[in-house]
Backbone:
């Protein structure tokens, strides 16, 4: 079984920065695409950024130039550096990892989410 845990959320003023971290642990054989999503009440979960095993990335238009996704394969971790935060970035941020377990099972796993609040 694989566990995915996010950390780093909190309250920040507009224009500020936060760094989210996500670590996967357990019987991992391969970590493929890792991504960050966010959700606000009454809305669907939306993609913020993803990074493939090759290192290529994709970003939502709303965060391009402000957010940077990175990964550390040795630590089974993915990070989201968020700069120039805006009130509309307020949401619960979720980490998602696409993986293969040692036993060959393939699936994607979600973390429990971390709250990011941008407010003065």
Residues:
């Amino acid at each position: 079984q694989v566990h995915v845990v996010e950390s780093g959320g909190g309250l920040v003023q507009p224009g500020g920065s936060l760094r989210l971290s996500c670590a996967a642990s357990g019987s991992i054989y391969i970590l493929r695409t890792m991504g960050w999503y966010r959700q606000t009440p009454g809305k669907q979960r939306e993609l913020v950024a993803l990074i493939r095993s090759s290192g290529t990335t994709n970003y939502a238009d709303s965060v391009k130039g402000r957010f940077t996704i990175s990964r550390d394969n040795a630590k089974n971790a993915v990070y989201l550096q968020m700069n120039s935060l805006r009130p509309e970035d307020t949401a619960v941020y979720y980490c998602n990892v696409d993986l293969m377990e040692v036993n060959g099972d393939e699936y994607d796993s979600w973390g429990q989410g971390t709250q990011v609040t941008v407010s003065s």
